[in-house]
Specification:
single chain; about 100 residues; mainly alpha; two-stranded antiparallel sheet; 2 strands
Length: about 100
């Protein structure tokens, strides 16, 4: 078992580039556009980018290639197309930390 913790600050969203945003899939971009408050948009954007980059760092591959499903509670999980049944992750935020 391997445990990694990745943390960033919400203010890091100010340095996100258009290239970074292109790493998101259509569903993530749709969700991002539907969020009303700027703080919510920043948290969502950073959590999705951090997840994609962490998975690529740990498992290889390109950040834009990861696909996600939702579990029965609505939490994101790695899509079965990746063939990684033992990969679990949790995303959370507190204050300005993601």
């Amino acid at each position: 078992m391997n445990l990694e913790i990745w943390i960033t600050d919400v203010e890091a969203a100010d340095s996100v580039s258009d290239t970074d945003i292109k790493l998101l899939d259509a569903a993530e971009i749709g969700m991002l556009k539907n969020l009303r408050r700027e703080t919510e948009r920043k948290r969502y954007l950073l959590s999705r980018l951090l997840l994609r980059k962490a998975l690529s760092h740990l498992m290889g591959g390109n950040p834009q290639d990861w696909r996600f499903d939702r579990d029965r509670h609505g939490k994101p999980k790695l899509s079965a197309v990746h063939g990684c049944p033992n990969v679990d992750f949790n995303m959370s935020h507190s204050g300005n930390a993601v």
